[in-house]
Specification:
heterodimer, A: alpha/beta, 2 domains, 11 helices, 30% helix, 20% strand, globular, B: alpha/beta, two-stranded antiparallel sheet, 6 helices, 15 strands, 19% helix
Chain lengths: 417, 262
Amino acid sequence: MTTPIQKPPKKNPQIRTVVPTLPPASRSRRALAFTVAAAEGRFALQKCAMCGHIAYPPREACPKCLSMELPWTDVPTGGQLIAETTVQTSINTYFRERTPWRMGTVLLDAGVTVQCHVHGGVLRNGRVRMIARTDKSGKGVMMALPESEGENMADDKQLRELTCDPKHRRVLITDGRHMSALSLAQHLAGAGASIIFVGLAEDWRKPPKQAALEAIPQVEIVPLDITNTTSVTECAGEIGGKVDILINNCEYVRPGGIMGRRDVITAQDEMAVNYFGLMRLMQAFGPAMRGRGADGANSAVAWVNILSVYALSNLPEFGATSASQAAALSLAQCFRGEMAGSGVKVVNAFCGPLDDAWRQPLPPPKVSPEVLARDVLRCLQQGLENITIGDVAHDVRTRWIEDPRVLEKELTQIEGM
Amino acid sequence: MNALVNLATALADGSIETVDLTHTLDPDFPVMILPPEFGQCARFRVEEVSRYDERGPGGYWRNFSCGEHTGTHFDAPIHWISGRDLPNATVDAIAPENFVGPVFVIDCSAESAVDEDYLLSVEAIKIWEKTHGQITENAWVLMRTDWSKRRGAEYLNMREDGAHSPGPSADAVRFLVEERNIRGFGTETVGTDAGQGAHLSPPYPAHYILHGAGRYGLQCLANLDALPPTGAVLICPPLKIKHGSGSPLRVLALVERNSNAG
């Protein structure tokens, strides 16, 4: 059992906020594929396509048969801790600030030995379950966890460095009117978030589920309209210093593409929310979060963009909305670059069609608010950076990874999908 | 000449007051809500260009955006389908003398306080005229409801069956246009029609009848309780927008201090 972390005390206003420091960030270009898999929560190593040998650390050619074909492949996560040490000091500032730090050597069931971080609950010479995650440098690392789930396991201080667990953290959900708002708030409250700020635009229009939201003790409704620069700036001025996790669930979605519309007004509205709204949030909340990436047990940890999976490739039925989502995705990439080194993960959650009025004519399966909330929470608790929500999103993204040109052809051909 | 000199003197010595009937253009001020699949009225928005900073060291200025019918605004005849073929039906083509003129204020605040769907009737106008005299030709008529004092969701007063706010009946608008030959009609609510105006006959009678007859509308007015029933002068020039269907504007009234206010 892991000792549960305590609710952090109120911040001492006379002490300088700890500046984020970083674990080693350098990786070879070849090794970045491990980071890409880790960001999705996959444990992948190079596996020789010719002889099946697992290569680690990353290589240019198979050390056994010299084949150049070494695709990154998901491998079994089981293993055994065969050696360990607890580091008491380090010349690296990041680790120096966090010692003692448990590290070890694990013999993977896949046949190679690896150096990794070790969870406090792992028994000496015990069986382990490996995870790959991105660390505060945004680079993939391995950690050995106890084989079976233990009580308060997520509270292990080394594991919590890799995750974005909402426990004891303060979350901002940007759109209280969105169908996902109530489920998100309920899931976050259940996961131990200490405050759940919920943004509400246009209080002159009553939202349908405000009473249910307000019934959650952790929820605080705050005025926030991401199409209004003044509103975003004022909201960030009020609460920006204590937003540890920001979930942007604002979206503007309308059917239609180019020629079925007679004007650009709807497209402007789509961009006003999906692109400019996101940029306003980033400009207002980004700097404070970037400065609080190492601010104790309730440090800033995650920025979650809930994006349409058609940001990856345009769905002409919702063509203009897809275009604005593509713009949002590009902006999120820029934001990742600007937040790099802050210790705050920029999460892109690619979502399939929601089960709402605007997507009513689309065929199932659709994403319910509960599924969206569950998957976002799981993503935060696991510390992932890229997830898909729903079967459609998973399918579209898988096809996009396989070949984006084929996917584009499929989505735009006469037969449709 | 003497009239203008006298007016200027009265304005200077305060015996004629200038009353502002305008709401502040504010991003949080309600706009008309239409069914979501229709085009919507743009909210008022502002972006700062510079504020004595690296974007412009010497100056503070901003870009703003809004619809032609955002905030306190003027409706030109072409705004409604009934007025689309009329001459001079756009804000840029309306002769400027129409923007200054006499104004009559019918106080419906007591009725509106007890009936949020209150409809101003012909009978009520005639009763008002018995006290204050007949509405003269080519004048503005404003319907005072004190609705401008409402805040937040109470202003649109939107429920599942639509908005609930007072306005004129179809017969009342027809009477004002045909029997009193008014120049325009103004309200404190988000439109010249009642919140449930879509269910009257014709739908949105103030829009349909006023604009079909080439008359003008003013809405989202404020401070109508500071105007006397008769004797004030309204000043309401909209922006000169090419082919404009309307425009946000500053609406002022000139009121003699000793007149019978309220």
